[in-house]
Amino acid sequence: MRAVRALQSLVVFALGSALSIAQRPGALAAYTPLQHVSGTIRIRGDEHQGVMLHNWEQAFHKYQPDVVFDDQLTSTAHGIPALVFNVADIALLGLEIAPLESLAFRRMFKYDALQITIATGSFDTQYEAYALGIFVNRANPLAKITLPQLASIFGCCPGVNIRTWGQLGLKGEWADKPIHVFGYPTDNNIAAFFALKVLQQGGAGGPTLPTGPRWNCDLKEYSNTYDKNDKPVISSDAFMMRDLAADKYAIAYSGIHEMTAQVKALALAEKNGGPYIPFTLDTVTDRTYPLTRSVYAYLNKAPGKPIEPEVAEFLRFILSREGQDSVTRQKVFLPLPASTALEQLKKLQ
User: Fold this and answer.
1) For residues 147, 49, 330 and 59, what is the CA-based torsion angle, rounded to 10 degrees?
2) Helix residue spans in 204-285 (DSSP H)
3) pLDDT by residue (tens digit) across 211-236?
């Protein structure tokens, strides 16, 4: 028994060490200022990024003490309008820019807002841009699924719809059983992310939907419950997991924070044939899991024109080793892998 416990401890230590290494953005260069800058950086948007932003600003002041920050973080919904009306230099968003926001920006400036990924969303922290898992009842023999298959299950695209478990290869009693689909209200931001990453790609290897996402008409939508102060009391994920545990023919896309022993997460592939990626903290951290989410900074950068130097320096800091180490310390959002951060740095040139 003592030997078994020792082995278990060794395994836990090894897993923890592997995760720690995976989270380290050690391949990133340390921040070295290209120039001394001054002025005010106006930041508007997502209140959930407040702690992370405050940490960045404090650390940045060690290198650039003459920069002043003017932060008003009230909601992701305020970020892009603040850019449009020139009351912000950086818009912080906990999700991708919405189509109507993009249209408003383009109508005003005749080009698109510049999107910079500044951190990976959370793994399992409620309301914090958490990754989405695909869950089924534990009695379900299915172990893996692809994004095109999900588009055919949760979407509606003539000729490629998947509506029974037999269409996913299940045999016996499962072959003719209908798939009961659970998800979020189709007009909320999580559903918008799912539609962008899944439904817009077309179903079962079929074409991209030309008129935007069309949801399965039988989708059962789950909402949070709120108290009199409009604060969430019970999350939609909790309701989904409860019903999924009671319905072995159901499937849901949801966060993992309310997962129960009666359900399981499916491995997920971008395309038919794999590779299939399990839904774990490691695969979300390294961004190989297909439904990993991000948080963003959006800028108003005209084509061919440089970013304001103080803004460019601050974003270079965020995407440096020190900036991404700071993300690790706040323990909600996840740091970017070095390769992703380097891709974002190129956008600042």
Assistant:
1) 130
2) 236-246, 281-285
3) 556 899 999 999 888 877 777 778 89
Cβ atoms within 10 Å of 18's Cβ, excluding its own: 11
The model's pTM is 0.87
Domain with 342 in it? 23-121+293-346
Residues 70 and 88: their CA atoms lie apart, in Å, by 9
3-state DSSP call for residue 324?
Answer: helix
Two structure tokens written together for 336:
């970017």
d(CA 14, CA 248): 35
Q: Give residue 160's identity as a one-letter amino acid code.
A: V
What SS3 state is found at 337? coil
Structural domain count, the chain: 2
DSSP 76: G
Per the listing, tokens 């209140």 go with 47
* Rounded Cα gap, residues 111 and 210, in angstroms: 22
Q: How many CA atoms lie within 13 A of 184 on its CB side?
A: 19
